[in-house]
Specification:
The complex is a heterotrimer of chains A (about 240), B (about 290) and C (about 325). By secondary structure, chain B is mainly alpha-helical. Chain B has helices at about 5-30, 40-55, 60-80, 85, 90-115, 125, 140-160, 160-170, 175-180, 185-205, 220-230, 235-255, 260-275, and strands at about 130, 135. Chain B has one domain: ABC transporter involved in vitamin B12 uptake, BtuC (Orthogonal Bundle). Chain B has a two-stranded antiparallel ribbon with strand order 1-2. In chain B, helix 1 crosses helix 11, helix 1 (about 5-30) packs antiparallel against helix 12 and helix 2 runs antiparallel to helix 3. Chain C is an all-alpha fold. The chains are: A alpha/beta (about 240), B mainly alpha (about 290), C mainly alpha (about 325). The interface of B and C includes residues 103 and 108 of B.
Chain lengths: ~240, ~290, ~325
Amino acid sequence: MSAPVLQVQGLQVAYAGNRALDLAALQVDRGEVVGVVGANGAGKSTLVNALAGWSRGDPRVSGEVTLDGTRIDSWAPHERIRAGLALVPEGRLVFGRMSVEENLSTAFVPPAGPGRRVYSREEIYDLFPHLKERRQHLGSQLSGGERQMLGIGRALMMGPQLLLLDEPSIGLAPMLVSQVLGTMRTLAGQGLSILLVEQNVRAAIEVVDRLVLLERGRVVLEGPAAQMGNDPRIAQAYLGAHV
Amino acid sequence: MNLTQQVINGLVLGHAYALVAIGWTLLLGVARLVNFGHGQMYMVGAFVTWWAVAKAGVPYALAVPMAMAVGAVFGLVMQRVMLKATFEQNLVSIMIMTLGFGYVMHGGAALVFGSTGQILETSLSLYEVNMGDLWFTGQDAAIVVATIGLFVGLKWVLDGTRIGRLVRMVAEDPKLAQLAGVNVRRVYYGVFAFEGAAVAFAAGMVAPRTPILTSMGFEEVIMTFVVVVFGGIGSVKGSYFAGLALGLFTALFGALVSPAYTTAAVFLVLIALLVLRPGGLSAGAAGAH
Amino acid sequence: MINTKLRYILLPLVGVAILAAPSVLGGTGTVYSAAVLIAIFAVMAYGLDVIVSDLGEVSLAHTVFFAAGCYTTALLSTRAGLDGWGTLAGTIVVALGLALLIGLVTLRLREFVFSLVTYAVGVVAVTLASNWQFLGGSDGLRGIPPLDLSFAGITLTAGNDQELWPYAFALLAITVYLIDRFRHSRLGAAAIMTHLNPRLATMGGTDPARVRLQVFLFSAPISAAAGWLYAYQRAYVSADVLETYFLILMLTAVVLMGRRQLLGPLAATALILTQEKFFSLGGYVDKIILGSVLVLILGFFPQGLMGLAKPLQGLFRGLRRPAPKPPTTSIGDIK
């Protein structure tokens, strides 16, 4: 059993005395797709920000975040990215004034290595033919679904060890959601480890190996996706997400 | 008054304005930093060049790069002190700090260089080109050539090189740039160093035209500001043409109406522009292109 | 709560102490001169304080209001023979007029554009003051008579700094009172809301642009009144009242102690001028010191000096206002 790609221990985030996240443990094994779900305010975006290393609004962050055996919790965001933690954020996906081709480029040369497959631009175009058709279009001219693909594509070109997806389904039509999440399964099949933070529980369950339910910053339920589908608390989170 | 001569003056002046403005507009477009110390950095650049040439006997061609190096260092120091405020986008703090820096530079320059006016003499400014009734100096020609060269070079770097792409990414969306692995802090440092070097370069080229004083610099900020309002924040091409337009206006106004009140006239033009198209300086216009 | 009651005892005590301070500290001409200048420049800074600390904008036009006060006083006293009351009234009118003009032009401009425009106003003002003969040109205006606030048979004049001190103190006390009232008024609350969250403020029924204009109009006469008194103190006025020195002084006074501290600008001005008058290292070095203080405070101690001494804050800060309630109707006037 190889070491987990991502190991989070005792991650606590507090804003002005209010505890927003209290994660005892979270783990993503190599080649695994883990879903983190929960209603609004459950702490999903706090988790994403903490993993990415962003500190908006002066939070107090403590705990350990280990990426492929290396502690990254004191690293700056761009250093974590270069180490292989690729974040596809919610909403902020494209450089509107640059072409698709330019958006699909890296700021550094990703080191290839075990567990890090660096996707070339051509491979991204194979994965997302829509983008290939629009390679000279500006980012601002893309639809929501295309932007999501572009964000994922750029992340893949950085040779990630772990792909962290923040609510990819937001603003997307259901068919596109299935398409994007289906691509996740394909990528996982190619060896990529994925942490999917999602509000749309039903869609997430179809795709992930393991599901983690967050409530008020804490893990309240965790288990294989197949078993979690019938749990009443999941149904409540599902309903909560659809208010 | 010879109209064509004034047009030539205006064109030279216009290139000078564009050259002075380029560092500032890039800084604003990429890092969203308003540098109120810009005028004093210009003044320091002029005085370092003058001191090198007049007091240290350094040839002019070496003095200008020296001033640029000093300017770049000033830019780096300023950014280091303002780093937290830059990341927090704390515009009030940034503006006040750059004012403070400008004041320190003023005091420091007066202490080191004295408060009397000086003339930066170069062989180029003594070299005159006469074409019938019209004339301009070698310095004037050098300003035009240098400006065009810098602008073309900058545009090429921004559009065609990897570094230029990184700069454009940071200019458009610093957070997304971080996610793409860009070391945004280093880009901010780089752009501030560029501002320092560019304004010093501009000073080295343009200052020979008039006497320099350690109390100068304020009008340069206004001219720069107008160039940016007119040309668009962060726009290399826009700054060039806006500079030319401003130069022509200043030359003609100075010749036809009054030289002392040109700044006031430019200010009124600025107000008119802002009132008529305030959207021209909206947040969305930031960027580098 | 304790704070409120303490204030009503403490502030008057502090006031009496300040009034007596110059004579306690030696009563020499130098001491009185320093005290008068501290009072004048503190008042000048209070005008800016409202804009920077409450509204959250950087106005570089308050030097122009200050200068307008100086020049209006000089012109009205030397050419129209008006007394202290007349020149004060004129100062306020001119300040309001200028503020209205600048305010309307900058009504919908964003923060840094607003600041750049006010900066430009300052530069243009220097050009005008240096070149326009009406304003005395490069020589300035001389021969301003001593301050005369006599009325109803009571003689109230001031021929030197010692005699001027009570009036300077009165101006300072009135200013501090006005600032305090402002911060307790609906306009003050609206200003903070506009500063912290413009969109939320709009949804609470306030028009950010209008609030901005009103605060601007409130702040301008304060800085101008400082200029009014300064003209009498110096007895002459020239373009040097527009020097950057005053701007940097104002800004440092506003940020040195920490934002929105009632006596902050006064304490800071006292510190700065004490250094300048009694521990000077030469004009240029003093400039470097002042500018560096401004930069270092904002760069490394953004909470100001008081931020370093939190326990002391309770005594000197003006009433800490609980989260402002959204105004229910339109913005009221200050009471």
